[in-house]
Specification:
Blueprint lengths: L2 H8 L13 H12 L10 E6 L2 H15 L8 H5 L11 E8 L17 H18 L3 E5 L3 H4 L13 E10 L23
Antiparallel strand pairs: 1-2, 2-4, 3-4
The structure holds flavin mononucleotide.
């Protein structure tokens, strides 16, 4: 199997990290890969906020868990109440991926908003980032739970550029011992139809 296919198949959501920070050169490689993702009309409507500040990550974790404990988020209550659960899995680097809400293209498709797809474009950038990370031996996990934080006024602390909306976070770090070599969750198989 070629290296790209191996990387795609070996990447897992990593939920245990070593405390050691990743190297700046590794971080740059991963971010550069993100920036090479395709985007609608080549808008490249993404912004990456790199957080390597433990105090800020601890604050975000606490605030998110506070939200997860609220009765209206029943599905998340258990995780919010667990003292062992850390939303970022103690990863030393967390990247917030935000999309430019004002990005526009000269070619709107009639009656749709399909020419402008920052959320989709950012998702592509995240996948590039995670595959690049895996290819250089760094673990990552895509985080939707961080959206609990984006709803709070403390989001100001992230200094997201004006008109950009934070969508997701990605954790980065060297993999913890327990997760090295972990197997992929079973893949659905009945997902393809052919018209030939
Ligand atoms: C949009 C999105 C949001 C996700 N949010 C979280 C999250 O908040 N926490 C988490 O541990 N994993 C999160 N994941 C990771 C998925 O749980 C994971 O990709 C899935 O279980 C398949 O496992 P794999 O990535 O190892 O193939 C998210 C994935 C996606 C695509």
């Amino acid at each position: 199997m070629n290296e790209v296919l191996k990387t795609i198949k070996n990447r897992r959501s990593v939920r245990q990290y070593q405390a050691e920070q990743i190297k700046d050169v590794e971080l740059t490689t991963i971010l550069e890969a993100a920036s090479y993702a395709p985007s609608g009309h080549n808008c490249q409507p993404w912004h990456f906020t790199v957080i390597q500040n433990k105090d800020l990550l601890n604050l975000m974790n606490e605030k998110i868990k506070e939200q997860m404990r609220l009765p209206q988020h029943e599905w998340a209550n258990k995780m919010g109440e667990s003292s062992r659960f850390n939303v970022f899995y103690e990863a030393p680097t967390v990247i917030i991926v935000s999309g430019d809400e004002t990005a526009s293209s000269p070619l709107p498709l009639a009656g749709t908003n399909f020419h402008y797809t920052p959320l989709v474009d950012c998702a592509g950038a995240i996948v590039n980032m995670m595959l690049a990370a895996e290819s250089i031996g760094i673990g990552s996990c895509w985080l939707g739970l961080v959206n609990f934080f984006f709803a709070l006024p403390e989001t100001e602390k992230l200094h997201i550029p004006e008109n950009y909306k934070p969508f997701f976070a990605v954790t980065l770090g060297y993999k913890g011992e327990k997760v090295i070599g972990q197997l992929a969750p079973k893949r659905k198989t009945d997902i393809i139809s052919y018209i030939r």
